[in-house]
Every structure is written in structure tokens, then in C-alpha cells.
Write a sequence for this structure.
């Protein structure tokens, strides 16, 4: 064995390198050891809080071409009762199914699909008041004006560029309430049939004939030849509707948009311009409100 190794092995180790003697059995640990045992592990550094995951929205269902969703109990019941409606799907909750059966006894023309309320969020707008029932169907075909006049001599409403579907729906509801023969809109500058329009009409879309004409001025002339007295609502007219209302012939009433009123050609083609007597506190009425007041005046019995 080399001399250096022998000498190193036999020399006493220095105090700094000396191992700490193991504690005797049963001996209390030193103060340093007790504190070392109690010292907690260092907590990891706090990083940015994880971002909260938003709840994924349900995927939107695609609507078939040339179809629309009608919703609400009265609206759907009226559509189911209309033989002119072409139906595709009927979705409803258990509660809505019972309510529909009470309003419109079975059998129905289409087999219903029972769904949970959350399902309606996948194809209706968030503000749609659906009451747990929706019907996928095709829009109604326009009714020829001549056919509507042959069935009824009630008042006829002509809408000159009234474009808000909810206003049109409300006008249809008043037309149904007061026995109007038809509501006439333009092919252009008029809203198509929508779920919002049908909901505002509360079933009247399926009971009041809706005619769509290319030219309202020519339609006014057609009504005049059919014996109608055609009056246009205008806030600046001299006579009120009550003063001018004829008692010996049916009446057609032309209403313009709330902001622009009647266009020139319609004004010139009408037999007479009339107004509703409102106070100076308001400049005008909403067109659907004006239609309701005017229809009441036209059918009122003296």
C-alpha cells in the first residue's frame, strides 16, 4: 500500500470535516433540529390566475331554405289550423304540448317532437318569447287581392313602405280584430314573413289575407274601380277620419311609414286625405297604433 495512502488513513480528520455524532436513543433533538423539522417548504410563487373558461354556446341549427320558425302558443296553433300552411317540424315541451292540445285538439297535421326548453336557443333569437313551442314551416303565399275582396267587403289597409315586421304584425292583429278584408303590402320595401312578425300578429298572420302588389298607386285605382273610397292618413289633412267616413261604400285606408308618411303618388291617387284628431302633446302616432284607432272608427256603429 502506498505510503501516502497509509498516512492519510491514520491521520485524525479535522473538526470541520467531522460528521455530527448521531443522537443517542431517547435523547431530545437539539433546538436547531426541532426548528428545521418544523420549517414549512417554500410555497411556489403565485402566477397569474388561470382564465375562466366561458361556457360554450350551443351550436346554432341551420334553417332550411324557404322556411321560417313560428313560435308562441297562439301563433303556432293558428298556423296548424291553417290549411294553406306547409309544415315541416313541430317542437314543443311537455307543458306546451298539453297547452296546445287544450287550445287545438288532436289530431294535428304533423307529428310533434318533444324537447327541453334549452333546445329553442339553438334556432331562435335570445329575445324570442316562444312559450316552449315552435313550428318550422314555409311562408304563406300572397293572396290575390281580388280573391280577398270577393270574400269580404270589410276595410282594406294599404301599407306604404312600412318596413318594421313588428309594426306589420301589430297591424295584422288589429285587422283581424276589426274584420278587415285584407292588408296590402308592396313586393319591395316591405318585410318578408318572419317569426317576429307572426309573434306580433298573435295568429292573425294566418287569418287575415295578405296581398303583395308591385305598384300601390295602381292598387288604389283597382280598389276605386271595385267601389272602395280610398283615404290616406295624413296629419296635415283638413278633415278627420270621423268626419269623412262614408256610410254608403267600403273604405280602403292607406298608411305611410311613421317618419316619412305617404309618398306623393299615393297621396295624389287617394280619393281623400284624412287625419286622426290627436293633441299637440305628440307629433304623431306609431303606425300600428294609428291603424288600430282608424279601424275602430271605420267599423264603429253610429
Amino acid at each position: 500500500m502506498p505510503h501516502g495512502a497509509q498516512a492519510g488513513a491514520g491521520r485524525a480528520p479535522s473538526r470541520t470535516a467531522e460528521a455530527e455524532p448521531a443522537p443517542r436513543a431517547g435523547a431530545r433533538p437539539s433546538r436547531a433540529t426541532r426548528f428545521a423539522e418544523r420549517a414549512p417548504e417554500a410555497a411556489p410563487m403565485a402566477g397569474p390566475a388561470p382564465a375562466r373558461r366561458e361556457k360554450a354556446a350551443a351550436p346554432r341549427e341551420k334553417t332550411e331554405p324557404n322556411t321560417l320558425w313560428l313560435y308562441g302558443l297562439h301563433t303556432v296553433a293558428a298556423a296548424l289550423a291553417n290549411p294553406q300552411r306547409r309544415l315541416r317540424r313541430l317542437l314543443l315541451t311537455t307543458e306546451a304540448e298539453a297547452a296546445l292540445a287544450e287550445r287545438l285538439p288532436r289530431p294535428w297535421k304533423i307529428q310533434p317532437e318533444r324537447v327541453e326548453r334549452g333546445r329553442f336557443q339553438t334556432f331562435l333569437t335570445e329575445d324570442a318569447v316562444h312559450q316552449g313551442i315552435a313550428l318550422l314551416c314555409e311562408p304563406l303565399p300572397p293572396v290575390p287581392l281580388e280573391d280577398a275582396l270577393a270574400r269580404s267587403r270589410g276595410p282594406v289597409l294599404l301599407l306604404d313602405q312600412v318596413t318594421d315586421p313588428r309594426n306589420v304584425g301589430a297591424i295584422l292583429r288589429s285587422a283581424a280584430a276589426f274584420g278587415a278584408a285584407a292588408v296590402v303590402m308592396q313586393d319591395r320595401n316591405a318585410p318578408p314573413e318572419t317569426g317576429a312578425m307572426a309573434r306580433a300578429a298573435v295568429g292573425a298572420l294566418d287569418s287575415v289575407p295578405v296581398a303583395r302588389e308591385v305598384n300601390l298607386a295602381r292598387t288604389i285605382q283597382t280598389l276605386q274601380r271595385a267601389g272602395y273610397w280610398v283615404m290616406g292618413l295624413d296629419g296635415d289633412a283638413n278633415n278627420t277620419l270621423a268626419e269623412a267616413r262614408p256610410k254608403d261604400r267600403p273604405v280602403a285606408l292607406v298608411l305611410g311609414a311613421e317618419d316619412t308618411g305617404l309618398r306623393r303618388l299615393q297621396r295624389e291617387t287617394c280619393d281623400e286625405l284624412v287625419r286622426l284628431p290627436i293633441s299637440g302633446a305628440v307629433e304623431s302616432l306609431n303606425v300600428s297604433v294609428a291603424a288600430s284607432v282608424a279601424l275602430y272608427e271605420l267599423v264603429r256603429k253610429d
The CA atoms of residues 93 and 199 lie 18 Å apart.
